[in-house]
Amino acid sequence: MTTSLKGLAERIKQEIVELELVVSRLLEAWQRALRSGDDFYLDSVALNLHGFYSGIERIFERLAESLDGSLPKGENWHQALLIQMSKEVEGIRPAVISQETLKNLDEYRGFRHVVRNVYTFHFDEVKLEKLVMGAKGSFSQIKTEILAFTDFLEAQD
């Protein structure tokens, strides 16, 4: 394996560790919001949902730049990046994520956009709850797929 691929695999693994903390904080903030009835905790929930998707996107950006040779461009580049990661690049790499994970992550991507463009007191609590309740399972699946991809990187000569 080349040093650059080994380094890439290690950076991805470190990002996964950080994402585990984000998911933990997300779930704790949600529980505190439920226990206290204080909707200020929902701000923390939204911020951590944003961080959850942003961390995954950072991994994908690194992979696109390092392996694929380019990031998508244009207004919908975030969505295009997700699609790019769900596709094999023949002779270079397998798909990083499954179609099921692509669909799942697209919901978090969409919410990240909302967090950046809407005041926090306008969040839809039903949508927040759906994303929070799915976060642990979503992260587990994403983690499995991304770590399988790091195994692929480490197996390269």
Order of helices and strands: HHHHH
The tally of domains stands at: 1
Note the overall shape. Answer: elongated
Report the oligomer: single chain
Given the structure, what is the number of helices? Answer: 5
CATH architecture verdict: Up-down Bundle
CATH topology: Four Helix Bundle (Hemerythrin (Met), subunit A)
- Based on secondary structure, the structural category is mainly alpha
Low-confidence stretches: none
CATH class: Mainly Alpha
The fraction of residues in strands falls at under 5%
Average pLDDT number: 92
Architecture overview:
With 157 residues, this protein is an all-alpha fold. The chain has one domain (3-155): Four Helix Bundle (Hemerythrin (Met), subunit A). The protein is 78% helix and 0% strand. It is built from five helices and no strands. It has helices at 3-36, 40-68, 77-85, 99-117, 125-155. Helix 2 (40-68) crosses helix 4 (99-117). The N and C termini lie close together (4 Å). The mean pLDDT is 92.
What descriptors fit this protein?
single chain; 157 residues; mainly alpha; Four Helix Bundle (Hemerythrin (Met), subunit A); 78% helix
Care to give the gist of this entry?
The chain is built from five helices and no strands.
What is the strand and helix layout of this fold?
Layout: H1 3-36, H2 40-68, H3 77-85, H4 99-117, H5 125-155
Helix pairs in contact: 1-2, 1-5, 2-3, 2-4, 2-5, 3-4, 4-5
